[in-house]
Amino acid sequence: MKISGTTQLACLLGHPVSHSFSPYIHNYLAEKCGLDMRYVCFDVEEDQVEAAVKGIRALGIVGSNVTIPYKIKVMDYLDEIDPNAAIIGAVNTIKNDNGKLIGYNTDGVGFVKSVIEAGHTLKGKKVMVLGAGGASRAITVELAAAGVNKLIICNNTLAKAKQLGEQIKERFTKVSIQIESLNMTESDLQGVDFLINTTPVGMSKQKDSCPIDEAISPPKGLVVCDIVYTPHDTKLLLWAKTNGLEVVHGIGMLINQAVHSFYLWTGKEVAAYEEILALLVEQGVINQ
Prior knowledge:
By secondary structure, this protein is α/β, with parallel strands linked by helices. It has nine helices and twelve strands. The protein is 34% helix and 19% strand. The strands form two sheets. A six-stranded mixed sheet has the order 2-1-3-5-6-4, with helices on both faces. A six-stranded parallel sheet has the order 9-8-7-10-11-12, with helices on both faces. It is globular. The model has no long low-confidence stretch (mean pLDDT 94).
């Protein structure tokens, strides 16, 4: 990589950040587009978050990603929040628009794009979402924006799911909202077009767990999605494949949310999913 006096900088703010593979993705995209831009990670202590955000403006950094635990905290120091990010209540991308810092959330956008790239249509569909946490908020908001007909939000804490449903309904009046517990039965899946897991069940230490009863026989045509990307084939996706269903892997959302952040900063739309996936496999970040 060549760095000159005109090299622009993009970055990641969070704590910790040493495990991040965002630099792999964004530096690859910058090189692919021929941009004189580099991406680095900054490990920021909690009492320095405000100073770090102000530093984006002061140093002319083109933009930043934000990871845990600061996706909510950074919102206090921005000049403007994208309407969908405001509903989600969290920001994972900051754009420096000539000194004006604008907050976005690209997680849901990345998920929707991964579903569309897999050849599926969301408009007019009935979607069941497992979980009502931060990832669910990002995804359900963008699903509503994409024109789904009905959202079934399943969560153990029904009040949390209901609150999310009300916030979505307030802005997206045409979408129908239904609240259910996570203890679903076979009949609950009848008529559902997409089943999406936004909970951490199935990842890392929980890799042998499935968010639903694996004895359930799903309806034909159901598309099963999992935002967990490690392991690549979660227990939920293996259940789906065993039942002959199409699946959408979590790595798609991860790659596409990064690509959308890159677009917000640079205006460059890049079709590089397969290339980035191959890069991450080569680097040992994920195992297919």
